[in-house]
Amino acid sequence: MNLAHLLQRQARMAPERPAIFHGTHCVATHAQWAQRCQHLALHFQAAGLLPGDRVALFMRNHVRYLELVFAAWWAGLAVVPINAKLHVREAQWILDNAQARWAFVTADITHDTGENLSGLERVIDVDSAEADTLWQLPERAVDTPISERNANDLAWLFYTSGTTGRPKGVMITHRNLMTMGLGYFCDVDAVSPKDTIAYAAPMSHGAGIYAIPHLMAGARHMVPPSGGFDPAELFALGQQVGPLSMFAAPTIVKRLVDHAESAGLSERTCSQSFKTVVYGGAPMYAADMQRALRVMGPRFVQIYGQGESPMVGTALSRHHLQDTEHPRHLDRLASIGVAQTPVNIRVTDEQGRDLPLGEVGEVLLQGDSVMAGYWRNPEATAKAIQNGWLFTGDMGCLDADGFLTLKDRSKDMIISGGSNIYPREIEEVLLHAPGVSEVAVVGTPDAEWGELVVAFVVPQAEHTIDTAALDALCLQEIARFKRPKRYVVVDSLPKNNYGKVLKTELRQSLV
Ligand code: AMP
User: Fold this and answer.
1) CA pair distance 64, 106, nearest whole angstrom
2) Which of 280, 431, 485, 502 is the most buried (most CB within 10 A)?
3) Global confidence as pTM
4) Given ligand 1 and candidates 405, 406, 409, 416, which is best to mutate, with the most ligand atoms within 8 Å of its CB?
5) Ligand 1: which residue has its CA nearest to atom 15?
6) What CATH architecture is 318-409?
C-alpha cells in the first residue's frame, strides 16, 4: 500500500481535470501533478534517498506542498511536516531527531531569525530557481514506478510536543492515513469532483492531510494567495470557484462568522462561499456554534482527534448540529459527537477500568487510524498505547447514545488559537532568565483565542522581575505564538505534598 497510488489513479482516470489551484489559478491537473511527482521522485532516487528516508517540509502553506508530499511517497520516503510557526531552533531539533536528509523550506521561515538549518544534505527553498529546475518537466514524460510500501510503513512523521518538553515524533503509516481518508466520507462529508478544499489552516497539520479524502474523490485543492486565513479572501474565492470545504480551529470559525455578520452576508451568500467547515483541535463553546449556525447556516461538522490518531476520534455531524428538536440537543452541541467509524472509544479510570456512563475518565481510542508509535521512543510508546488502546490524555464522559463530552485534559497542554502549547517548554526558557526562581505556566480562558498563556513567576531573593526581558528571552528561544501574554509575579507557587505545583489553583486564581 502506498498513498501515491491515489494520485496515480486520478491521473489515469481524470488526467485533464484541474487539481491544484493558487487562488483561482490552476497550477496542475491530475496528470501534471503526477508527472511532477514522478520527476521529483527520480531526483530523490538519483540523490540516493532510499525508501523510509525522511524529507522535511518546513514550509508555510504553498501550492508545491502537495506535490512534495506525494512525490516523497511516490519514492517511498516519509514526510516530516514542521509547523511553519516554529522557531528555527525548534525545527532544527526536529530535523536532527528525525534524521531528515532533505528539507524543503519557504524563505520567510529562516529570514525571520537569520538562522540557518544545518545537518541536512540539501535545503531547498521552494520559491528558488533551484526548485524551479526540479519542478520543470522534461520534454518526454517520465515513468517512475511507485515504490511499493507496506501498509504499516511510515508515511508522515508528525512532531507533537509533550509534557516532557521535547516534541515526540508520531509515526503515522500509510494505513493510518488511508483509514482517515475513507473515514472522512462516513463521518464528515460526501465529496464530489466539483468540490474544492481550501488550505487556510497549516498544511503541516490536519488540514494538510485532508488532501487525502479530496484526492480520493478527485476534488480540487486550493491554496489561497494569502497562504493563510483571511476571511474576506476566502468568502470571495468561494464565490469565484464554488463553495469551499476547509478545516478550521474554533478561533478561525469565530472570525469567519464575525466577518459574515459584520459584512451583512446572508446565509445564502455564505452557502455560495462555503460547503463545509470542519472544526476541531480545541474546544468550541456551544453558544459560539449556535451563533455560527444562525449566521452561516448548516455548514459545520466537528471532529476530535489528535496527532496520534490524526483527525479520527469522534465527529459531531451536520445532522446532529442541526437537530434542534432533539431533547438533548444542547448537550450534544457541547459534546464532541460520537466515535468515528474507524475507531472504538472507551472512558476509563486510572486503572484502565471502564467507567459507567456519565463518569469522567481518560478517553481511550482503538482503530486503524492510531499511530504505529513514537519515533525511536519505546518508553513513550508503551505508555501511550496499552493493549492496543491509545491513551489520549483527554478527560471526558460518554452518554447512553455514544456522545463524548470532553471535560479537561490530563496533560497540561494549552490550546491558543488552535495551536497546542506545552507549558513545560516555556517554563524551561523562563527558568533561565536572571533573577527567576520558579515558574509555572497555565492557560486561561479567552473569548478570542480560546486560551491565553499566563506565566506565574517567583523572583529570587532581592531580585525584581523585568517582564520585558522575559518576553525578549522567549522571542529568542521559542515560537512567537507560545510567548506568555501575561506575567503574574508571586512570592511562591501553591504546591501539593509532593512538591508538584497545583496548576488548577493557579488557573482558578485568574478567573
Ligand atoms: P493535536 O495532537 O495537535 O491534534 O491536539 C490534540 C488535542 O487537541 C486533543 O488531545 C484534545 O485535547 C484537543 N482537541 C482536538 N479536537 C478537539 C475538539 N473537537 N474539542 C476539544 N478539544 C479538541
Assistant:
1) 10
2) 280
3) 0.89
4) 406
5) 281
6) Roll (2.30)
